Amino acid sequence: MTDDEQDAPHEESHGGALGARLNWLRAAVLGANDGVVSTAGLVVGVAGATEDRSTLLTAGLAGLLAGSMSMAAGEYVSVSTQRDSEKAALAQEKRELREYPEAELVELTGLLEDRGLSPEVAREAAEQLTSRDALRAHARVELGIDPDDLTNPWHAAWASFLAFTAGALLPLLAIVLPPSAWRLPVTVVSVLGALALTGWSSARTGSAAVRPAVWRNMAGGALAMAVTYGAGSLLGAAGV
């Protein structure tokens, strides 16, 4: 190891900060990917059946609005359930601390021992943490919850709504703005580029391998467009 490497600051995300970042990342990437892929699949499928610009625009806008509202509602319900579970766990822990304080102190000591502390140090640390804020200590050590930073369903809902809308706008504009002959290739290239970008962003932010994330995103989007375009073409040829 060089001197520069030894002197360089060690930056690493821990605990709640990493968890919060990954939760936001999950909602944003899921929303953007779903917006890009579902809307692209919809407009490309319709483009396989008709070249009418107003029909493509109507289908794309309907898909955008329905998808963004669905994503927001789904995230709100999901995160609300998680928040309710966290609040219920905190309420139960508060009740146990009030009714069985000594047993809870022993439990906290054991949890600290499981993390590598000696029995003596674990007991002393448990007593100090309990004297400062027993509920906070048990919430973080036993439940893995920060009482001051519970999950927010409205934040997740808005993040998903905005991410889906932003993702859906790209294929929608790509299919209606270019001349008829260029609509499909422009849309395909734009969608694959956007999926490559979201795959790269999610991998970099989550400290994961970039190449697999990019290829997964692009392959899924390409498959969705191929399937819907084929179905639209068959329906259009059949006069449906």
From TrEMBL:
InterPro entries: Ccc1_fam. The chain crosses the membrane at residues 156-177, 184-203, 215-238. The keyword Methyltransferase does not apply. It is a multi-pass membrane protein. It comes from the Bacteria. It is found in: Endomembrane system. Keywords: Membrane, Transmembrane, Transmembrane helix. Pfam families: VIT1 (PF01988). This is VIT family protein. It comes from Streptomyces aureus.
